[in-house]
Amino acid sequence: MPTRLNPYLSFRDQAREAMEHYHSVFGGELTLSTFAEMQMPGDPAEGDKIMHAMLETPAGLTLMASDTPDSMEHHPGGSHSVSLSGDDEAELRGYWEGLSAGGTVTMPLEPAPWGDTFGMCVDRFGISWLVNIAGAGSA
Q1: What is residue 113's predicted lDDT score, i.e. its pLDDT?
Q2: Number of H helices, E strands in the chain
Q3: Which of 109, 108, 118 is nearest to 138 (CA)?
Q4: Cys bridge to 134: 54, 61, 109, 138, which one at CB 3.0-4.6 A?
Q5: Cα–Cα distance, 22 to 98 (Å, whole number)
Q6: Do 94 and 50 share a structural domain?
Q7: C-alpha torsion 5→53→78→104, nearest 10
Q8: How far is CA 21 from CA 16, 17, 72, 82, 103, in A?
Q9: DSSP assignment of 92-134
Q10: 0.85 exceeded by the pTM?
Q11: 34 half-sphere exposure, CB direction, 13 A CA radius
Q12: Is residue 76 part of a domain?
């Protein structure tokens, strides 16, 4: 297996909902494991929280996530973004529509000075996304 770099997102009680949403946007196979299923120590009231989620898409994207237990600090968003880029305009516009729905568009998906189409949004779960569609002649 080759080495892969995968975004791993942390949520406070929203990992299941967020990953199910991303599954509806990207398709693919979603696996969810709770703290109780993995027999993790901790507050039994948190047993239904997601200890590990992984979404693997037909396009080769992998996205992982978990819920942060209440006993641990959680600092959502702000210091990272997830970037999607490529030249399949229909695919990337579809991702954009799904990710920006219910969120905040911080930069509309439109032609950029460097010749590509680019946009930025924060989805309804507080995750920042960058989408770049390669323009004609982009390498």
Answers
A1: 87
A2: 2, 8
A3: 118
A4: 138
A5: 8
A6: no
A7: 110
A8: 9, 6, 25, 15, 12
A9: HHHHHHHHHTTSEEEEEEEE-TTSSEEEEEE-TTS-EEEEEEP
A10: no
A11: 12
A12: no
